[in-house]
Each structure stands twice: as structure tokens, then as C-alpha cells.
Specification:
about 90 residues; about 10% helix; 1 helix; 4-stranded antiparallel beta sheet
């Protein structure tokens, strides 16, 4: 079964060449949580139509409407592992 997690990034980063905030880049919505970006899961939906409807609704709400292009989603196979290896923590400033 395919499902669609829907995310929104509230940006606070200073990743631009001049220290400005980067919202979207060539590959899609930019996100750097270590530089202050805030990622929110809005929900997991069964169809693209439900994703699109939720984005329309959310764009009317405070915060979300300030960054209307900063939603992203991707199709995921239910019960399939996506992260199969461990991870390391990188502390701020390292």
C-alpha cells in the first residue's frame, strides 16, 4: 500500500550566500534543522487528492500561509524500511 506523508518546513536558516533564508532550491524544499528550520508532519494520506486538499486548507492557517511553497510529500510503501543504517549526531558548531 502506498501512503503520502505531508510535511511543512518553517524556515529560520541563514543558508543564502548573503545570510538570507533559503526556502526552496533546485531539488525542492530546502531544510536545515541545525540552522533553525522547523519540520512539521501534517499527516499521512492515502491519496494525492487528500494531500492536495490538506495543503489547500493549511495554506489558510497562520504560519503555513507565510510559507505556502514549503510543503513537501513523497510516496512511501507501507511496512517497508526506509532508514536501514544507523546515524551519528553532529553537534552545533562542529
Amino acid at each position: 500500500m502506498i501512503v503520502y506523508p505531508l510535511w511543512h518546513v518553517g524556515h529560520q536558516n541563514e543558508a543564502g550566500d548573503d545570510g538570507s533564508t533559503v526556502h526552496v532550491e533546485e531539488s525542492g524544499v530546502f531544510c536545515d534543522e541545525s540552522d533553525g528550520d522547523d519540520v512539521k508532519l501534517l499527516g499521512i494520506y492515502s491519496t494525492l487528492e487528500r494531500v492536495e486538499e490538506r495543503v489547500r486548507q493549511a495554506r489558510l492557517l497562520p504560519g503555513f500561509r507565510d510559507e505556502p511553497e514549503c510543503f513537501y510529500f513523497d510516496a512511501c510503501e507501507l511496512d517497508e524500511d526506509d532508514w536501514t543504517e544507523g546515524f551519528v549526531r553532529v553537534l552545533p558548531g562542529e
